[in-house]
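FW: tagging you since you asked about this chain on Friday. Here's the raw sequence from the shared folder, copied in full. Didn't touch anything.
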Amino acid sequence: MKKIANFLLFLALVSCATTQEQSKGVEQKKSNKNLRVQKHLVDSVEVGCNGCIKGSAGDNEIRKSGKKSYFLFGAEHLNLKNKYFDIPVVYNKYTKMWIKYFTGRGKKSFKRYAKRSGRYGPVLSKILNNKNMPRDLIYLAMAESGFQNHARSWAKAVGPWQFMPFTGRKFGLEVGFFLDERRDPLKATVAASDYLTVLYDMFGSWELAMAGYNAGEGKIKRAIRRYRTKNFWKIRKGRYLRAETKNYVPKIMALAIIGKNLESFGFDDIEFDKPLDFEEITVLENTDLYNLASVIGTSFKEIKKYNPELTRWQVPPKKGNYKVRVPVGIKKNWDLVVDKTVVQANDYKIYQLKGYASLKHVSRKFKVPVKILETLNGFPKNKRLFPKTAIRLPFRADHSRKNRLYADLYEKPRKSVRRRRAYQRWIRRGMKKGRKIASPKQFYTVKKGDNLWSIARKTGVGINTIIRSNHKLVKRRMILPGDKLAIK
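HL: got it, structure written out here
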């Protein structure tokens, strides 16, 4: 208990403050909230329960909390120790399916998720509780990322709560080149609490709020109108929601049932990660994390572990002083450093122009945002630069562009994404160059293996004409066997 109390002493959250600047000339992000995480003394309330993943609330805690609780009916034969939840949890064929998965083929995955909960689970739970949210929502984070700060989906959702860039910014998280606060488990949990509060207020149902977190509130609003019900399980029977969203809610429920009853499901041998206690030091903008690590007696890897929101090798330039988290006991080393500028980032990779160019050309060549190059070099993006002009790039001199720190700049999209983009280019070209068949009299029925190019060759009709004459069909999706296309 003492270790947990010490851990919470360092990590606990102070609530999010929302500030709106009224005066002109002050830039403000629309619908954005300023989030600030501070440390404060917390009470001695026990976080966790016996036989649960770290951060879970046991039956006694839930019943004493004064919040609405839900009893799990129909699972008496499982002999569960914890049967109360502060989100609705049901035991039906869909949750049974996920319980079977996580105790069977997905057993290793569940063990990894549960093991990681030891590091951040208690403080995530504490943040949710301080925001007056159900603590069992930590299982939503478990379903999203398995408690991984660096989790990244193909759709570019990032962090333990898998925020998309737009949604992250909307709820106060900075998403930029040097800093991505979606990876910060503390700030991201505050933002997730605010987002889930909005969703719950919108739908009046935790099942729909969780579904909205996955599919977006617009999708759930349309589903409610279509099926004329706010009952998730009735909406789930329809075809409108994707399978991913239909399975998302029962997956969270299954994780909660197992996570709060580890012994009942054969997970009594999990060795949880140690809590990540830390101290904070204040450094200047543009601090080189390699230099900082060397001066304070730790490693770059260790600093990155404590500061997952710092995406590169340096603290953001032009941002003012920054608080960096370091292992407990390291702060005193930084306090002894008199000249804090000794760790400033200067070791940039230099690129010499081979001809006349501008920063816009360099930006395209290295796939670096032009604003970043303007910040590092002090030139406007359109200024004509002479050959052999030295341009600072945001890469460390001893790094290659293949370094993991820059992987997001050069990663290739999935094949399905590339195919979709190529398809859309064909459609746009066809609409510009194609001839529309005004009153079609002859149609072609699509066969298995056909595509627009092969149909154009078979019929002798230009692909652009096929696209423009069948635009209503082809703009929505790729053609499928059985579709009828006007060709003459």
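FW: The longest strand covers residues 390-396.
HL: agreed, and The domain at 415-486 is CATH 3.10.350.10 (Membrane-bound Lytic Murein Transglycosylase D; Chain A).
FW: great, closing this out.
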